[in-house]
Amino acid sequence: MKKIYSLVIAIMIFCAGYAEAVVGTVSPPSISVTQGISATSTLVYRLSDIAVADCQYRSSKGSFISGRSSLLEENPAALTVIVPPAINSGSATETLRIPAGLIEKVLRQNVRTFTYTRVFETDTCDDVSVTMNVTISITGEAAAEFGITRMELYFENRRPEITLERNMPDLKAFADIRFVGSGLLEGYWEVDGRLISREFRHLTYGRSVTLQSQQIPGLPTFDEGSHIVRFVVTKPASDIATPFIVYFVTPKEARIRQIPLLLLDPIEGGNAGAATKFSWDKPAGADIFLISFYEDPDGTPVFSAYTREPFYVLPKPVVSMVFTAERQYLWKVVGFDTESQETSESGKRTFIIK
Questions:
Q1: What are the DSSP E strand ranges found in 140-287?
Q2: Does residue 130 sit in helix, strand or coil?
Q3: Is there a contact between 82 and 90 (Cβ–Cβ < 8 Å)?
Q4: Which CATH architecture has domain 259-353?
Q5: Structure confidence at residue 4 (pLDDT)
Q6: Taking the domain 21-139, which CATH number applies?
Q7: Closest Cα to residue 213, out of 251, 183, 245?
Q8: How high is the mean pLDDT in each 10-residue block of the chain (354 residues)?
């Protein structure tokens, strides 16, 4: 009889040994969150060394517990770990969201750490419950891992939409980005899915930064219709939805914004004649020039001529036929591009014919 009891006790100890051998691990075992900012983390729960295969462990909920062992909040999402046949382990994955309000609730208790707990139970495996904990630490924004918390796009009118004429130059978009921590921000501007320019910026703790799309050239406006602008962040990784803004290009052709054109010689009130070279500075984008001469500051030109050079010499027949000696006149120059669009214009300057 003693042998039978000994055998029973041995079997019970053997079975108990198997039950206690189940190992539960969660990865990562600890995470950091930032005060005032909601966070998301992916957790992987793994059970191993399970004596009985082809069974399940189930956790009906997750619990947030403060350092004082008080229940803060519950996550009603259930998780199941399936242990396949002939395999003594299994895993389950959870995307855990930690609301900013929960973080503030913890801080009001004058603690900066709390725990997320799940208990996995089974009726089909070893009949042993397994508890797994994740430690959550609250840090300030400066000490937080570098990350984007918010992004807003807009045009120069401070709105997410704008209407402009075809070929309007210098269209720019702006991105207000809020972040925590410090690190390298990488991203790119795109229009209708086409990459326009890349952005590389090392950000140090400062909460926010404003980025601007490249100025030269501006965003494309040669195609009529609606166009979608995005700033896509490639680093750091972020689960924030990429916002977009829209601009609409009308069929009407835009008048190109003119660049000031600087007149050189002759100087204001200087003398001029058939041998005088009227010269001016050549601004970018100007391929041909129209020089005009006036008798009246508000009147129409008495003579005009085109030139591809940034200077012009009045022909002797023109001087004798159009101009009167010792009389004051004015001159002005307008620059044009290869498509005959005005790109630059000077003011009027006086001179005296000799």
A1: 147-155, 161-166, 173-180, 183-191, 194-203, 208-212, 225-235, 244-253, 259-260, 263-265, 270-272, 277-280
A2: strand
A3: yes
A4: Sandwich (2.60)
A5: 42
A6: 2.60.40.10
A7: 245
A8: 42 41 89 83 90 85 84 92 85 92 89 93 81 91 77 94 87 92 90 90 85 81 92 87 94 74 92 90 89 90 91 91 92 86 88 90
Structure token digits, residue 192: 């209708």
Find the length of the chain: 354
> Helices marked H in 21-157 — which ranges?
100-107
Residues 6+ apart with CB under 8 A from 224: 166, 249, 250, 251
Six-digit token string for 46: 């793994």
- Spell out the domain ranges in the chain: 21-139, 147-253, 259-353
The one-letter amino acid code at 34 reads T
> CA 236, CA 254: separation in Å to the nearest integer?
39
Structure tokens at 317: 């027949």
Tell whether omega for the bond before 220 is within 30 degrees of 0, i.e. cis.
no
Q: How far is CA 217 from CA 220, 233, 301, in A?
A: 8, 21, 35
CATH 3.30.70.2660 fits 147-253, yes or no: no
